[in-house]
Automatic annotation (TrEMBL):
Listed CDD domains: ACT_RelA-SpoT, HDc, NT_Rel-Spo_like, TGS_RSH
Residues of the HD domain: 68-167
Keyword Hydrolase: yes
Name assigned to this protein: Guanosine-3',5'-bis(Diphosphate) 3'-pyrophosphohydrolase
Gene Ontology MF: a single term: guanosine-3',5'-bis(diphosphate) 3'-diphosphatase activity
Family: Belongs to the relA/spoT family.
Known role: In eubacteria ppGpp (guanosine 3'-diphosphate 5'-diphosphate) is a mediator of the stringent response that coordinates a variety of cellular activities in response to changes in nutritional abundance.
Keywords: Hydrolase
Listed Pfam families: ACT_4, HD_4, RelA_AH_RIS, RelA_SpoT, TGS
InterPro entries: ACT-like_dom_sf, ACT_dom, Beta-grasp_dom_sf, HD/PDEase_dom, HD_domain, NT_sf, RelA/Spo_fam, RelA/SpoT_AH_RIS
PANTHER family linked: BIFUNCTIONAL (P)PPGPP SYNTHASE_HYDROLASE SPOT, GUANOSINE-3',5'-BIS DIPHOSPHATE 3'-PYROPHOSPHOHYDROLASE
Length: 736
């Protein structure tokens, strides 16, 4: 997983310098770190893994010219700082041997155990698989890594330590590769570290990614901060002294220190909030660590007595922890000279978790209550990854869903019973419904926010109480995908729509094939089991349903399938006589079909219009008006044309856009609207092309049930004296 990969020969392989040029690496620092908390036998296993990895990587160099083994040792040292166990440390030392050497997973399992081998495999890349693009390969790498993480959290800890050391040594890579790796780190690795509560790594990854992705901006900001630091020292000292004097007056023991702002944090505030450098730097940050939770709230009172708090800037993450287990009180005060002072108040245990997140499970085992809650939240998120995987179509889609959820949520909403759900900013009622349960999301029709009935696309705010209203026959709408914010909601909606498409396509496929069989004197019920089985073998499909779905989606032409079925049936029955063709009959179109039957957007047919059907590959049956220019372009593909007719009774409303040219006089729009309303017709939208001298062109979208209804509307509008011309506007016509 090393971004600074071994240097290849021009003919492939790995460069191997003379043995004398490779200096032996000191294993002492790692040994000292591990000896402080592991047993002697564990230390022996780690040393054996070190020698095994050193032998496997013999002669390989990093881009920096260092022996390659220096990278796995550095990764293991980072993990040893978290007090990870011997299995994880062995896996860290071995994490590149499967990828860069001849060593196999079976050999690792034999020497160091199955668990270590699984950890190494979870971290290893998928270089041996052919992918269409670098993006697809990366998506599959992350999918594998995240799913391995769901079964063993140590996989992601090794991966993050690996990426951290690579980022620390990225200077030796080409500028374009540095930018690509930095962007990847910023979009994936840093958010994962944040989601797992690994704040120290999260901040360092952000800083390093910023440095390599935007090197010029990084240098400019670095110089500006160095220049401003001396001027800040006096203010920081004054505030620190005041806080340290006030807390003992309230009998509060505390550690207090100023927090240095990170470069990337300053840059992000400047860009997101459109602040100048001086405005961002004029905010001073302090951290107060006190013995217990009760004292946190007492310290808050003491500080609010020292400096006035800024209204609306207090956040209680102790009562309602963040999704990654982070707990702290946040408040903003007006300090001396009117400068804003941001203060975080927490206990030592909260401070441990804030810095080390899930790694606290290994590092600080004494805080069982906090860690149990943290592990529960992490486990819930990891389970949601498995659920996303089961509903995502491919690796890229899976990664897209995960990336949505990686960025921290700031909206906390409640059920009527008081259960809290943390959601990302901009989350809607639909996101909340899917957070409660997939079935609730699939059947939701509206929501009550704080007792008031609101539409599904309404964005939620902190503290909102949400009651989801469901209906037994409701189902997800494709339009929801345009405003949902959580990966779970997006994945479940797509999954439902995909299944619905398969259902509808299968039903349509049966109708199309039955129609295509009629000229051969057959119906679906008359086709023998032998004919079906033979045909399915020929087309390499397992079931008739799969075949019907393929036909419904336009992947197979019904005429060709019907012809082959008839041939097999004739051969089996020994029929030599010529079957008298029967009329095929037309497919009836209701206009209420879903994704498998679509009314073409280029001509927007409505009941009563003469229509034709065309099977579009992967899209199903598309219905056009018979004189549609788009349909005429496909006349040569006769096998794809299907006879279709409108079903006699249809209660659906169809959108039709009318272009009305009127005299430019006052009140004409009202007259047109009244004429349309008199025909029991609803107006969906009105727009104008602007005034053209003495005339105005109106584009009015109305809802009608059929062509006769439209004719009445047109006749009513045409009778208005000020109307010069009225025409039906097709979607492919320009509005001008």
């Amino acid at each position: 997983m090393d971004s600074a990969a071994p240097v290849p020969f021009s003919g492939g392989g790995v460069s191997r310098p003379p043995a004398s040029s490779v200096l032996p690496l000191d294993f002492g620092q790692l040994r000292a770190l591990v000896a402080g908390y592991l047993r002697p036998e564990d230390l022996g296993r780690i040393e054996a893994a070190y020698h095994f990895a050193a032998d496997a990587h013999t002669g390989q160099l990093r881009k920096s010219g260092e022996p390659y083994i220096s990278h796995p040792v550095a990764v293991a040292e980072i993990l040893a700082g978290w007090h990870l166990d011997s299995q994880a440390l062995c896996a860290a030392l071995l994490h590149d041997v499967m990828e860069d050497t001849h060593i196999t997973k079976a050999e690792i399992a034999e020497r160091f155990g199955r668990v270590t081998a699984e950890l190494v495999d979870g971290v290893s890349k998928l270089d041996k698989i052919e992918f269409q693009s670098h993006e697809e390969a990366q998506a599959e790498n992350f999918r594998k890594m995240l799913l391995a993480m769901a079964s063993d959290l140590r996989v992601i800890l090794i991966k993050l330590a690996d990426r951290l050391h690579n980022m620390r040594t990225l200077d030796h890579m080409r500028p374009d590769k540095r930018r690509r790796i930095a962007r990847e780190t910023q979009e994936i690795h840093a958010p994962i570290a944040n989601r797992l509560g690994l704040n120290a790594i999260y901040r360092e990854l952000q800083e390093l990614a910023f440095k390599h992705r935007y090197p010029l901006r990084f240098r400019v900001l670095s110089k500006a901060i160095l220049a401003a630091r001396g001027n800040r020292r006096e203010v920081v000292g004054k505030i620190l002294a005041a806080i340290e004097e006030r807390l003992p007056q309230w009998n509060i023991e505390a550690e207090v220190w100023g927090r240095e702002k990170h470069l990337y944090s300053i840059y992000r505030k400047m860009t997101e909030k459109r602040l100048s450098f001086s405005q961002v730097l004029d905010i001073y940050g302090f951290r107060v660590v006190v013995p217990d939770v009760q004292t946190c709230y007492r310290a808050l009172g003491a500080l609010h007595g020292l400096y006035k708090p800024v209204p609306g800037k207090f956040k209680d993450y102790i009562a309602i922890p963040k999704g990654n287990g982070y707990q702290s009180l946040h408040t903003t005060l007006i300090g001396p000279f009117g400068t804003p002072v941001e203060v975080q108040i927490r206990t030592p245990e909260m401070n441990h978790v804030a810095e080390s997140g899930v790694a606290s499970h290994w590092l600080y085992k004494e805080d069982e209550k906090t860690l149990t809650e943290l592990q529960h939240k992490t486990h819930s998120w990891l389970q949601s990854l498995l659920e996303l995987q089961s509903t995502s179509g491919d690796s890229s889609e899976f990664l897209e869903h995960v990336k949505v959820d990686l960025f921290p949520g700031e909206v906390y909403a409640f059920t009527p019973k008081g259960k809290i759900f943390a959601l990302p900013r901009g989350a809607t009622v639909v996101d909340f419904a899917y957070a409660v349960h997939t079935d609730v999301g699939n059947r939701c029709v509206a929501g009550r926010i704080n007792g008031e009935l609101m539409p599904l696309r309404t964005e939620l705010h902190n503290g909102d109480q949400i009651e989801i209203i469901t209906a037994a026959h409701a189902s997800p709408n494709p339009a929801w995908l345009s405003y949902v914010r959580t990966g779970k909601a997006r994945a479940q909606i797509r999954h439902f729509l995909k299944n619905a498409q398969q259902e509808e396509a299968s039903t349509l496929g049966e109708r199309l094939l039955n129609q295509a069989l009629r000229p051969h004197g057959l119906t679906l019920g008359q086709v023998s089991t032998f004919a079906w089985d033979r045909l399915l073998r020929e087309v390499t499909l397992a079931t008739r349903r799969e075949l019907m779905t393929d036909i419904g989606l336009g992947r197979r032409l019904p005429a060709i399938v019907a012809r082959r079925l008839a041939e097999i049936q004739d051969t089996e029955s020994g029929r030599a006589d010529v079957v008298k063709p029967k009329p095929a009959g037309a497919i009836l179109i209701r206009g209420t079909e879903g994704v498998a039957v679509q009314l073409a957007r280029c001509c927007r047919p409505i009941p009563g219009d003469p229509i034709v059907g065309i099977i579009r590959k992967g899209q199903g049956l598309e219905v056009h008006m018979h004189d549609c220019p788009q349909a005429r372009k496909l006349r040569s593909e006769r096998d794809r044309w299907i006879d279709v007719e409108w079903e006699p009774a249809s209660d659906r409303l169809f959108d039709v856009t009318l272009r009305v040219l009127t005299q430019n006089v006052r009140g004409v729009l009202g007259k047109v609207a009244n004429a349309i309303a008199e025909q029991n017709c609803n107006i969906q939208n009105v727009s104008t092309d602007g005034e053209q001298g003495t005339y105005t062109s109106l584009n009015i979208t109305v809802q009608v049930t059929h062509r006769l209804h439209l004719a009445k509307v047109v006749r009513g509008v045409r009778n208005i004296p000020e109307v010069v011309r009225i025409t039906r506007l097709k979607a492919d016509q320009k509005a001008g």
